[in-house]
């Protein structure tokens, strides 16, 4: 194959990693978001999420000379439908699963051990406290892809019971993980429920008043997927009634929430700014995924993690 020219929408930290590891590769920086044009001869677009992508019309001349689009995200809800009607599109499934799973376990431990309220700062506060346990509790997973599996692995190591809802049927292929028949079953049985499903028409407001009414009393909801999976009004009602004891939200809809939204200050809500994937290893993982697929692209082989728009990733 002749020289490969990559139009990259990433910052120079990622681009420099690509240049260091593949010196013969031409990496040309282009602005993030919708593309109006690309450098002459660019056959690959290395894209990342951007608020302007979703509603952008297809540019004149699309798909230019592109033969492959690599996304640095797992979910594809940031992007317009026309992006998937041209060259093959691949995603970064699995690159942030470990980091997100660690975030989930930290959230579970924070609830069980009442952190940070447990810390004391004076002799007057030195009083024996009874803390909760993680071992023996039940973790429910809505979504059993790369993130769900990474969470399950760590939860099992803590002695938790794990039930998961996934697409398709059949027994679990992960020892110790039970496959649930419905979201209602997961919410009714679990002490902690993790949302790790893609944003699709089917999952929009999956967590609604009906589902939350079936939740095990005291349930802790953790969302590391997309904010659109949760009806926020229904969530607030469940928190106010005590049906849910806590909601840990790394994602919301929209992001960020507007000023004054009650989720900002609700005493049973813990919000973080979509940061669960963010570790120093993420940039290397994204670059590695691109280079692995680049080797396949150059060899004329099938690319890994090809996007299926119907599945949302």
Features:
313 residues; alpha/beta; Rossmann fold; 2 domains; 7-stranded parallel β-sheet; 5-stranded parallel β-sheet; NAD; D-isomer specific 2-hydroxyacid dehydrogenase family protein; D-isomer_DH_NAD-bd; NAD(P)-bd_dom_sf
The number of domains = 2
Shape assignment:
elongated
Strand order of the largest sheet: 8-7-6-9-10-11-12
Low-confidence stretches: none
Give the count of helical stretches: 7
The CATH topology of the largest domain is given as Rossmann fold
Looking at this structure, what is the CATH superfamily of the largest domain?
NAD(P)-binding Rossmann-like Domain
Cα separation of the termini = 29 Å
How would you spell out the order of helices and strands?
A: EHEEEEHEHEEHEHEHEEH
CATH-defined architecture of the largest domain: 3-Layer(aba) Sandwich
In CATH, what is the class of the largest domain? Alpha Beta
Report the count of strand segments: 12
Question: How does the major sheet shape up?
Answer: 7 strands, parallel
Residues in helices, as a percent range: 25-40%
Q: What's the alpha carbon Rg, rounded to whole Å?
A: 22 Å
Range of strand content = 15-25%
Q: Averaging pLDDT over every residue, what do you get?
A: 95
Q: Structural class, please?
A: alpha/beta
- The protein's oligomeric status is single chain
């Amino acid at each position: 194959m002749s020289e490969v020219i990559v139009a990259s929408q990433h910052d120079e930290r990622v681009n420099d990693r690509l240049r260091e590891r593949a010196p013969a590769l031409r990496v040309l920086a282009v602005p993030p978001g919708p593309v109006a044009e690309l450098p002459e001869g660019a056959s690959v677009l290395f894209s990342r999420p951007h608020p302007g992508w979703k509603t952008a019309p297809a540019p004149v001349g699309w798909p230019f000379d592109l033969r492959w689009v690599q996304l640095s995200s797992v979910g594809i809800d940031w992007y317009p439908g026309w992006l998937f009607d041209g060259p093959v599109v691949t995603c970064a499934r699995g690159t942030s699963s470990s980091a997100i799973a660690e975030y989930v376990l930290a959230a579970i431990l924070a609830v069980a051990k009442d952190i940070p309220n447990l810390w004391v700062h004076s002799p007057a506060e030195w009083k024996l406290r009874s803390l909760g346990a993680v071992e023996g509790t039940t973790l429910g997973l809505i979504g059993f892809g790369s993130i769900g599996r990474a969470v399950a692995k760590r939860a099992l190591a803590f002695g938790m019971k794990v039930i998961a809802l996934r697409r398709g049927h059949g027994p679990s292929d992960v020892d110790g993980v039970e496959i649930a028949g419905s979201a209602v079953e997961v919410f009714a049985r679990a002490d902690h429920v993790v949302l790790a499903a893609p944003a699709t028409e089917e999952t929009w407001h999956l967590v609604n008043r009906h589902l939350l009414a079936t939740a095990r009393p005291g349930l802790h909801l953790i969302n590391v997927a997309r904010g659109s999976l949760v009806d926020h009004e229904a969530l607030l009602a469940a928190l106010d009634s005590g049906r849910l004891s806590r909601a840990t939200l790394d994602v919301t809809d929209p992001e960020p929430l507007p000023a004054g939204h009650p989720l900002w200050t609700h005493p049973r809500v813990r919000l973080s700014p979509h940061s669960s994937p963010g570790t120093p290893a993420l940039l290397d993982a994204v670059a590695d995924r691109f280079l692995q697929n680049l080797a396949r692209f150059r060899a004329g082989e099938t690319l890994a993690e090809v996007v299926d728009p119907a599945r949302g990733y």
